[in-house]
Amino acid sequence: VNYLPVFILLLIHGKSKLKKEYLYSYKFSICYFLLALLYSIPYPELASQLIIKEYFPFFIFLLTAGIFSKNLDYSLMIRFLKPLFISSIIIYLIPGRIEANTILNTLPLLSRIPTQSSIDFLTLDVFRNGGFFWDTRIMGVIAYVFIYISLVKEKSNFNVAIGLIILFSTLSRGSIAVGVMLLLVYLFLQIIKGKYVKPLLVLGTLLTVLISAVTFDVVKLEDKYIDSFSIFSEKNALSQREGFRKYSLESFYDNPLGSGVGTLKGVGPNREIPIEGGKFNTVNDAFIFSKLGEMGILGFILFILAIGEIIIWRSVYSLALFLGLLIQLTG
What we know:
The protein has a two-stranded antiparallel sheet. Helix content is about 65%, strand content about 0%. Helix 5 crosses helix 8 (about 135-155) and helix 13 packs across helix 14 (about 285-310). By secondary structure, it is an all-alpha fold. The longest helix has 25 residues, at about 45-70. It has helices at about 5-15, 20-25, 25-40, 45-70, 75-90, 95-105, 115-120, 135-155, 155-170, 175-190, 195-215, 225, 240-255, 285-310, 315-330; strands spanning about 275, 280.
């Protein structure tokens, strides 16, 4: 269902020929995708799990980008997302928002099975904005993409402020790190141009909202959450996923050319990966390390190059987004 609009567009415009310039522009992405298919052969059952949720969307992107490369208007995303972002904040202003969040997340319509542990998590004072995606991390990624497009295409300080407020409301640490990198680049570029008022207004608005949210108990932040941002903390965001990284790197050391798609992230084999709070049978995080373990050094390099040729344009913002995304994928 998610891809239905894309399929309709491809059926209507699918007769358009892919030009050689496009194939050259996305050469690393195409090579990465073909290599992933090749690495799916050894363990098809495990690979099929990732093909559906990771490689098929990547293929759809390559196809649509090739056909509509000159007609894509990314600024349209701003008009679509802005009202949805604003509406996702309204729940913070509703009395009894915790109870409302619990009910929404356990509706039978969403195939959510309420358990005591899930209810305990949802009723924490730390209320994370999952928005219309029902996932705080996805919401965070969409928020910093919104900020990026606002900076590059729209050049709207108001939209940047909205994106930052939404981003921080998700409490998604990796996404916040990417957003902060974009914000710092924005502030730096504005200051060297001698434009101080607008960036200070954006920064002031953001700080006012954040301080007010904590002061008036709209959001309560525990000390351990604050500490998780510090690189000097023993329990920061990266150290919490250390088990996944070690397991993935051990797989890479054993098979430098890669063990095959799905061998680490696929659900099935009996594994016991020690992580703080328990043991897991699949590598849930440390994405970039699992890529190294599954597809080896060649697949890893092609992945980095593919992300680079997709993201990096003639803009310092795109470089910040690229570096921020790589940092996020380590966790």
